[in-house]
């Protein structure tokens, strides 16, 4: 079908085979170098994010004593945890129903739950804002949490669905044969096997919420400014190393969470695999 | 019989929360926006009931048409560049990285650990007149004095690719890894050169991943608003900025609703094209 010309042969040999390594290397530099520079200048003594004038921790001190940032952090944490809990709960139950039960419209519901993935978030945000003011709801924690649930529920559902569909039904049959009732089977056989996926869904949902700007732009109210919204208004005024210090602290927090999660869940996962 | 009834009731209870969530907070709000896009507006910004096509008519006029073109070309460029860069990266991770592959995938996720606005701010600094890139260019003698890169379409594109590249790499990688290497070797054994093997075996098999990548990059890039403001200086207004301005600053809800419905239509079109292309690709196999 494809004429195999010499030029095409050259193209594929050089670009796809030979140069894929170089493209990868350059891409990783492109992705990671800005972060390295960003973190380095968090320790700058001067007010510049370009000219190095000496080492200091003063921008970190500024961040942790900035009331606006701390308030926004509190809002973001509350919204992240609450929306992740709601999203994981609703998503997991729906995922189990979709993989385990047959009911009319199963495929439609599965697709609808994944829909926010491919609908522009800004339209969902605007729609929610219009609807909330139409219904007379005041913008605040409730609206923020609802908005963030919409953003994270496709991911929560898909993760738990993947885990639920790969479960071995023989384990549940065995439990039933051994005299366990339906609830006992679910509680003692199905749920423990789904726990890692549910936990992953929770962490991912919380992360998505914590990083969210678009949905928050439309659903936050007076006194519920989230951290990304605060950062956005800070950036529009100009960049100081305070932003860099905040970024460095975020990396630190993420590494800590990752290590905690791995410390708690890695042994569990290894045990499950051995079984 | 009773058992069946109980099971039905249980299934209903399990589905209720998600169905309610989707109906109440996605479907119904979208219907309200759709209705508002035909509504009238009094001089103070309040929405008046009524039916008019003026909101849509306004969109095809000069200013708004430019916004549309800007958004479309920005999203198209972003998607094209992400695929062009993302494919070789995914190819390398899938076939050449060997045991380093998991580490490379993890490294691609590290940028997500920092708020994306802060990551974009790193580019604002790097691309600035006193920034590292200008310094390196002057030092190496490519240019004589710093050039203004911030506030250009190029700077916006750098930020867009930076933000969306991982979205392109992951689906392509996921489509490439399951390809049976023996198929590629068989191609070679049958006398196909690397070009033919790639063009007739590897590329067609990975097309579903490429299509998914295009969809995952294109749809969100049509709706961004922060990156063009921070890196492009907000000069070229795109749909995302327009929606934010119309709703939160000008309080022109009917026209804002019309713009939102238009954006929704574009995404729907993207999804439709994706599904058609996917069916074609699958029919080819």
TrEMBL record, chain A:
Gene3D superfamilies: MetI-like. Required for the activity of the bacterial periplasmic transport system of putrescine and spermidine. It is found in: Cell inner membrane; Cell membrane. The chain crosses the membrane at residues 21-43, 72-96, 108-132, 138-160, 197-223, 243-266. Keywords: Cell inner membrane, Cell membrane, Membrane, Transmembrane, Transmembrane helix, Transport. The lineage of its organism: Bacteria, Pseudomonadati, Pseudomonadota, Alphaproteobacteria, Rhodobacterales. The keyword Transmembrane helix applies. This is Spermidine/putrescine transport system permease protein PotC. Pfam families: BPD_transp_1 (PF00528). It comes from Albidovulum sediminis.
UniProtKB/TrEMBL annotation, chain B:
The chain crosses the membrane at residues 12-39, 74-93, 105-127, 147-176, 210-233, 253-275. SUPFAM superfamilies: MetI-like. It is a multi-pass membrane protein. InterPro entries: MetI-like, MetI-like_sf. The keyword Nucleotidyltransferase does not apply. It is found in: Cell membrane. Keywords: Cell membrane, Membrane, Transmembrane, Transmembrane helix, Transport. Residues 68-274 form the ABC transmembrane type-1 domain. Its main location: membrane. Coiled coil: none annotated. Belongs to the binding-protein-dependent transport system permease family. CysTW subfamily. This is ABC transporter permease. It comes from Albidovulum sediminis.
């Amino acid at each position: 079908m494809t004429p195999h010309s010499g030029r095409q042969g050259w193209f594929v040999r050089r670009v796809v085979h030979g140069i894929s390594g170089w493209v990868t290397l350059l891409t990783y530099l492109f992705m990671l170098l800005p972060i390295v520079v960003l973190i380095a200048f968090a320790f700058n003594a001067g007010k510049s994010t370009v000219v190095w004038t000496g080492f200091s921790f003063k921008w970190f001190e500024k961040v942790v004593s900035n009331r606006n940032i701390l308030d926004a952090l509190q809002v973001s944490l509350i919204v992240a945890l609450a929306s992740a809990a709601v999203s994981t709960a609703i998503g997991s139950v729906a995922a189990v129903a979709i993989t385990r039960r047959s009911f009319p419209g199963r495929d439609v519901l599965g697709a609808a739950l994944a829909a926010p993935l491919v609908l522009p978030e800004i339209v969902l945000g605007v729609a929610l804002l219009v609807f909330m003011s139409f219904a007379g709801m005041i913008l605040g924690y409730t609206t923020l949490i609802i908005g963030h649930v919409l953003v994270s529920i496709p991911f929560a559902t898909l993760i738990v669905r993947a885990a639920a569909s790969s479960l071995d039904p023989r384990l549940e049959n065995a439990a039933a044969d051994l005299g366990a009732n339906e609830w006992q089977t679910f509680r003692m056989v199905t749920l423990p096997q789904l726990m890692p996926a549910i936990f992953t869904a929770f962490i991912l949902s919380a992360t998505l919420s914590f990083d969210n700007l678009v949905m928050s732009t439309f659903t936050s109210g007076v006194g519920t400014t989230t951290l990304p919204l605060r950062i956005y208004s800070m950036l529009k005024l100009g960049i100081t190393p305070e932003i860099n210090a905040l970024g460095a602290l975020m990396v630190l927090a993420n590494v800590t969470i990752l290590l905690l999660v791995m410390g708690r869940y890695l042994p569990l996962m290894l045990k499950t695999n051995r079984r | 019989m009773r058992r069946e009834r109980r099971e039905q009731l249980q299934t209903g209870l399990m589905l209720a929360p998600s169905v309610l969530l989707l109906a109440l907070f996605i479907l119904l709000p979208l219907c309200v926006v759709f209705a508002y896009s035909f509504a009238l507006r009094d001089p103070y910004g309040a929405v008046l009931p009524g039916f008019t096509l003026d909101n849509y008519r306004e969109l095809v006029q000069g200013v708004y048409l430019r916004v549309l073109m800007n958004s479309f070309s920005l999203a198209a460029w972003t998607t094209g560049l992400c695929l062009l860069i993302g494919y070789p990266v995914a190819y390398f991770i899938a076939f050449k990285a060997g045991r380093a592959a998991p580490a490379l995938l993890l490294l691609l996720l590290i940028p997500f650990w920092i708020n994306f606005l802060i990551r974009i701010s790193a580019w604002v600094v790097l691309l600035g007149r006193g920034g590292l890139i200008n310094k390196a260019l002057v030092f190496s003698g490519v240019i004589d004095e710093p050039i203004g890169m911030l506030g250009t379409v190029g700077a916006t594109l750098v930020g867009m690719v930076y933000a969306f590249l991982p979205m392109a790499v992951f689906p392509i990688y996921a489509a490439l890894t399951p390809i049976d290497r023996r198929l590629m070797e068989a191609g070679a054994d049958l006398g196909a050169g690397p070009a033919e093997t790639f063009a007739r075996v590897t590329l067609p098999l990975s097309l579903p991943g490429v299509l998914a990548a295009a969809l995952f990059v294109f749809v969100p890039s049509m709706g961004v608003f922060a990156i063009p403001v921070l890196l492009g200086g907000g000069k070229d207004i795109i749909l995302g900025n327009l929606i934010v301005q119309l709703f939160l600053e000008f309080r022109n809800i009917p026209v804002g609703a019309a713009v939102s419905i238009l954006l929704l239509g574009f995404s729907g079109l993207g999804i439709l094209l994706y599904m058609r292309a996917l069916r074609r690709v699958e029919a080819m196999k």
